[in-house]
Amino acid sequence: MRTGLALFLAITAAVTTLPATAHTARPSSHVPSYIDELTSIRYDDGQGDDLLTGGLGFAGLRAATPPPYADPDHPTAAELRRRALWASAGLSAGDGGGLGRLYGANVDRGRPVPGDGKAAGVEYRATADRTGIVVQIPDAFDRARPCVVAAPATGLAGVYSTAGSAGAWALHRRCAVAYTDKGMGPAFEDLHSGTVMSYDGTTGPRASIGDRAAFDAGLSEEERARFDTQRPYRVASKTAHGGANPQAGWGRDVLRSVELTLALLNRDRRAGAPPGGYTPATTTVIATGVSNGGGAAIAAGEEDHGGLLDAVVASEPQLNLAPLRGVRVLEGDRLIRSAGLPLLRYGALASLLQPCAALTEPTAPGYAALDTDAARRRCTALVGDDPRLITRRAAARAGTAGLPRLAQEALVRAGFQPQSAYLQVAHYDPQTPASYAMSFARASVTDSLCGYGWARTDGDGRPAPYTAAELAGAFVTNAGRAPAPGVLIDENSPGGPVADTRSRGADGRHDYNLRGERCVLRLAFPRPDAPPAERAWARRVTAGLDATRRTGDLHGTPTLVVQGRDDTRVPVNHSSRPYLGLNSRTGHGEMRYVEITHAHHSDSTQPGWDTRYIPLGHYYQQALDLMWDHLRHGTGLPPSQVVHTTPRGGIPGRAPALTPAHVPPMTTTPPADDRIEVSAGTVRVP
To answer: Is 135 helix (H, G, I), strand (E, B) or coil?
Structure first.
């Protein structure tokens, strides 16, 4: 284990020095030297196609089915972009949960946006070190009081994934928008056909795509053919197999997207600009995002040493934190002893525990797909000497029937909320910690780290070839790991490689790939007595993880963070709560944190969730409004607080419509009992 000082030095060394343009008040119209490629498309009147809705208008975004491709095997870049914009808005889900009615791309401050939503302007596409950047400058851009909203992609998703949220909010305020995929996104190489993805989302043979490929596996044709012979139909992904540890560059990528936007404004929109041009001094700049995008916005705030950003707004940010150095988190009188774990570590623990813990909630969404016999065997396999799982002593007291409860208690010890049991089965996701371990280790697809691969599978769960249409549409369907319907593969399952969810143990029975998940846990929590090869991989994983650590120092930049208390993908105890404590220790206490009850990481309204949870997206949009009023009108930001919401209730699948009464606003004068306090590094959450 590194000392705190050594880790701090490693983090400092990992931060890439930004170009001088981020630190100057002089306007520059020169495209930054790190931009490899730059193209632009003008949407003249915003009627046929446009920046926000892809020509669909708000009515088209509400359509239950996505906009079609003329040829599904060969969709055009424009068709892929249109479908990505349709997906990002999410309006097809219906408005019972408030989306499209109380918040969303077609709603501003709780009121419908006039017109059909189409926004005319110019869209620029750029690449920088295989990171995708899209800049949108609307014709309605406010040149007198210019603003730029940097909106990095959410999760591992594509560059347009925040267009329907942060992008819409920005365009409604006549701001330019800077999107970036953060070096991640849907790019892949199908190692069977040699198909890769271009930056515009179109696909084709690697030889014909050439330098326009957003990613390839780095194998020669001979190596690719050999690997496909040994393990046919596998897919390499940009996130897991890119060899670049993209999380380490999240902050840099966001700042670069802003620099490029200012340069383009100075080059193409000088008429009517402020006398000094578009600079950090004349232009309001907000970095904002959700989940990984929220973590990227915060990373940009930490790496902004030249005053490029005016504010940061983040929702449910995924953060890998530096050592807490005495920072403590209390909820009521309960001390959270595992606060501040990185996603790789709490995700690896969760993957092992969730199949067993899920048995405690048989009515939860996703339970019907659980193999309960395999889950009970997982419970038994968790019993041992590891105090993070189920100890032999506790198991002896509880008996076999009590093991699921002990697994859920282990999740709580690992920092998950006690009320998270209902969400655990739906959040079982060994793919994320596995792909993050590969990314941190800079592993190649041929390494098959921990015996994992990705592929499309047939009805028996065996790797099978993709269709041309599945590969061609991956710009929209790929979640950053493999084109849909690709899944995680257990390469070492008895009987041959099979979908991870169908993996079998040495006894031939289904076990949800216990061996693979234990391997990821060992890499996440290195053992000094591990075999040499495992120690070598663990060192690489640790080095990659350490390069992504966040210290809490936002240099005084006003920052507003919102998160759902019940978040089970990115638990509050490993994210916003301890980060607030780290920030308080820097002497720049400009961060405000608002925690929302009955909200979690997804605004899905599937039956069971519709009755119990409210949408966090409503509060994310409100947070952007509050920050805007702070920057433009000098109004105060709300103090850190807990907002108590009211679930819709009713019958699962038929919950009554969400109303403003269910989702009370954040307030600048919360009751004392609702305030989140920070004192001497201790965060106290009521």
So the answer is: strand
Q: At 374, is the secondary structure helix, strand, or coil?
A: helix
Q: How confident is the model at residue 309 (pLDDT cuts 50, 70, 90)?
A: very high
How far apart CA 27 and CA 282 sit, in angstroms, is 10
Q: How far apart are the first and last CA of the chain?
A: 33
Is 330 exposed, middle or buried, given 0-12, 13-18 or 19+ CB atoms closer than 10 A? middle
What band does 8 get if pLDDT is binned at 50, 70 and 90?
very low
The phi, psi pair for 494, rounded to 5°, reads -55, 135
Helix or strand run (H / E) with residue 30: none
In three-state secondary structure terms, 409 is helix
CB atoms within 10 A of CB 153: 31
Task: Give the side-chain half-sphere CA count within 13 A for 655.
Answer: 26
Give 536-584 as a DSSP string: HHHHHHHHHHHTTEE-S--TT--EEEEEETT-SSS-GGGTHHHHHHHHH
Question: What pTM value is reported for the model?
Answer: 0.95
When comparing pLDDT for 157 and 18, which is higher?
157
Q: Count the alpha carbons within 13 Å of 320 in the hemisphere toward its beta carbon.
A: 23
**Which positions ≥6 away from 626 have C-beta within 8 Å?**
560, 635, 637, 638, 666
> What SS3 state is found at 180?
strand
> Where do the H-state alpha helices sit in 269-331?
292-303
Active-site amino acid positions = 291
CA–CA gap between residue 467 and residue 475 (Å, rounded) = 15
* Secondary structure, 3-state, 72-102: CCCCCHHHHHHHHHHHHHCHHHCCCCCECCC
